[in-house]
Amino acid sequence: MVEWQRIAFVDSRKRQARESQRQAIAAPATIGVLGIIVAWQLLVWIGDYPTFILPEPAAVFRKFAETITNGLLWRHLRLTLLEVLLGFALGFSSATALGYYLAHHRRAEHMITPYLVAMQAVPVVAIAPLLVIWFGFGLLSKVLICALIVFFPVLINTIVGVRSVRREWLDMMHVWHASRWETFRLVEVPAALPVLFGGLKLGVTLAVVGAVVGEFVGAREGLGALINIARGGLYDTTLLFVALFTLVAMALALYGSVVWLEQRVRWW
C-alpha cells in the first residue's frame, strides 16, 4: 500500500511539473502575440498606410470571420491539409524505410548518397513545375512535392538515429539469440526515437512549405492558391494575411501534435 501511495505521489508531482511548464510557456507566448498586434496597429497608425499595403489587425480579423462564415477558408484549408498529410506520410515512410536499410548497409549508402545529395541540391521550386507538367494540376503533384521536401531530412535523421544505438545493447540481444524483429522492436526503435522525432518535427513543418510551393506553381484551390488570388488582380491584402496566418496556425498545430505524440510515446 505504501508503495502505491509513493507511486501516486510521484505521478502527481510530475503532472504538476508539466502543468507549471505549460503555464510558463503559454504566458510569454500570449504576451508576445499581444505585443505583435499592438506594434502592428501602431505601425499602421504612424505610417498611415492604406489597407492594400498594410491593413489593420481589426480588418484582418473581420476578413478571417467572413471567410470562415462563407466557407471559403475551410475549402482551401481542407485541400492544403490533405496535401500536407499525404505528402508527409509518403515522404516519411519512404525515408525511414530507406534510412533504416542504409544505416545497416554502408556500401549501399556510399552508392546511393551522391544521387540523394544531388537531388537535394536542386531547389524544390525548380522541380515543382516539372512535377505539375508530368502529373497534372491535381492532388498527386502536390503530394509528390511535399514528399520530396520531407524525404532528405527525415532520411538523414533515420540513419543517424539507427546508428546511435549502443553496440553493447545489440551484442546483448545477439547473446540472447533475439530475432531481427525483437532487436528492432526492443532496442533499435526505442534508442533511435529521440533523433527520429527530431526528423518528424522538421518534416511536418517542411511538408507545409512543399504544399504551398506546389500550389503556387499551379492550383485553383488551397491556401497557396488563395495567396495567389489575393495578391493577383484583387490586391486583397487582408485576404492574403488571413491565408498566411492560417498557414502558420496549421504548421504550429501539426508541430504541436508531433510534440504531444512524442511525450506519449517516449514516456517510458
Automatic annotation (TrEMBL):
Which of UniProt's keywords are assigned here? Cell membrane, Membrane, Transmembrane, Transmembrane helix, Transport
GO biological process terms, semicolon-separated: transmembrane transport
Q: Which domain of life is it from?
A: Bacteria
* Subcellular location, principal: membrane
> Which residue spans traverse the membrane?
24-46, 84-103, 115-137, 143-165, 186-219, 239-261
The topology of this chain with respect to the membrane is:
Multi-pass membrane protein
Kindly list any coiled-coil regions of this protein.
none
One of its Pfam families is BPD_transp_1
Is RNA-binding there in the keyword field?
no
* Gene Ontology CC: one annotated term: plasma membrane
Q: Which residues form the ABC transmembrane type-1 domain?
A: 73-256
Q: Subcellular localization, per the record?
A: Cell membrane
Q: Which family does it belong to?
A: Belongs to the binding-protein-dependent transport system permease family.
Query: Can you name this protein?
Result: NitT/TauT family transport system permease protein
* Organism name: Ardenticatena maritima
